[in-house]
Amino acid sequence: MALRRALSAAGGRWAQGLCSAARRDTVFAVSSGHGKCGVAVIRASGPGCREALQSLTGRPEPPAPRVLALRRIRDPATAEPLDRGLVAWFPGPHSFTGEDCCELHVHGGPAVVSGVLRALGRLPGLRPAEPGEFARRAFHNGKLDLTAVEGLGDLIQAETEAQRRQALRQMEGELGRLYQRWSETLTQALAHLEAYIDFSEDDNVEEEVLSRAQRPAAIVSPVAGTTRDVVELSLNVGGYPVVLSDTAGLRAAADPVEQEGVSRARERLQQADLVLAVLDAGAVPAEPGALGEALGAVVPPAAPQPRVLVLNKVDLVRGGAGALRDACARAGLPPAAPLSCKTGEGLAGLVELLRRQLERLCGDPLAGSPSLTQTRHGQHLRACRAALARYGRAAGADLALAAEELRLARRHLGRITGHVGAEDVLDIIFRDFCVGK
């Protein structure tokens, strides 16, 4: 089995080499849309970009990297001036595609644009780009994974502020990193399981290795200041995927390590979409003024994010949750969720309150485009979950079968980001892109 997987991996690398060789040509297209406009941007990517700039500008050297330079642009075949515009040079790998790239910012009249495109097309080794080819090259060169490519497509199509914000976060790799963390967890579990299958008879692997697919998220202590780093956990709250970040809290700290924890808490506070201010209800009088001061100490009143006031240890408060909720309402404070982590009282109410807040932030998930996943994401995630369920049933009976189910679950996650078996979905991903992106 190990030899078969090794040969399969070698075949994948050989196919990748063929694909890379096929991309040695240089492609170009209008990247700023079509029609009359003040400025049109023509992009080229590939090994011939440097020579193309030399031919069109008549200069022996390109401009400084990532600096716009004013140049006269001419047709190399006839020496006829075509326009006077700005050119930019992006040497690989520090470019959108990871290859040598250049851009020509010319006047957007149809005659100017078509003249420059014809001049580029006459140069040896250059051809017009196919739809989505720039993004596809960025994927093959490791500049984007498939979720980031889809985020880029969503960003181009975004019509609302919420769509723009979600697409930008996905394009910057936030969703891909989440899937990658899950994939790494499955990879580690699979490695442990295969090691146990191969070497357990030689007593080289402890039986406890089978219990390492699960671990506590953090050490919990009643002592204040013991949380230092940010502890994150991915959750499904009412159908909305969220990342919950538990921080050290905000306090005046004397210890340098705790000061760093507080600093990271402030940084994460600025990045958060929704802030949960957790207070000890037993230490705060059920009076509007006292509650307002306590909340202001945790989250500044001028914080732009929506806030939820979580009042823990309600089982220690005289009058219980009702008295605290009434006090918060009279004080005009943010929505409050009294609860007791000890007894579980109020937990369902907190989840429902979070669901309503997330619906305001993200919109109704049943209306418009999904905020997190494409259709194929859901298909692969459901298949991954089914494989994990089969793994759980097989783990106590047939470890080889369990390992195969774990490998299948990992493969489905990899197909989302493009890190495993992506070739069969590439055409679907890129065919919807416009030429020039």
List key phrases describing it.
single chain, 437 residues, alpha/beta, Gyrase A, domain 2, Rossmann fold, 6-stranded mixed beta sheet, 3-stranded parallel beta sheet, disordered N terminus
* Distance between the first and last residues' Cα: 41 Å
N-to-C order of helices and strands? HEEHEEEHEHHHHEEHEHEHEHHHH
CATH architecture identity of the domain at 231-362: 3-Layer(aba) Sandwich
Query: What structural category do the secondary elements indicate?
Result: alpha/beta
Describe the structure in your own words:
- There is one protein chain.
- The protein has 437 residues and is of the alpha/beta class.
- Among the domains are: 26-144, Gyrase A, domain 2, CATH 3.30.1360; 231-362, Rossmann fold, CATH 3.40.50.300.
- It has helices spanning 2-22, 49-57, 110-122, 133-140, 146-157, 161-171, 174-199, 256-271, 288-298, 320-330, 347-362, 375-394, 399-417, 423-430; strands spanning 26-30, 37-45, 69-74, 81-90, 101-108, 126-128, 231-237, 240-246, 275-280, 307-312, 336-338.
- A hairpin with a 6-residue loop joins β3 and β4.
- α5 (146-157) packs antiparallel against α6, α7 runs antiparallel to α13 and α12 (375-394) runs antiparallel to α13.
- It is extended.
- The model is unreliable at 1-22 and 421-426 (pLDDT under 50).
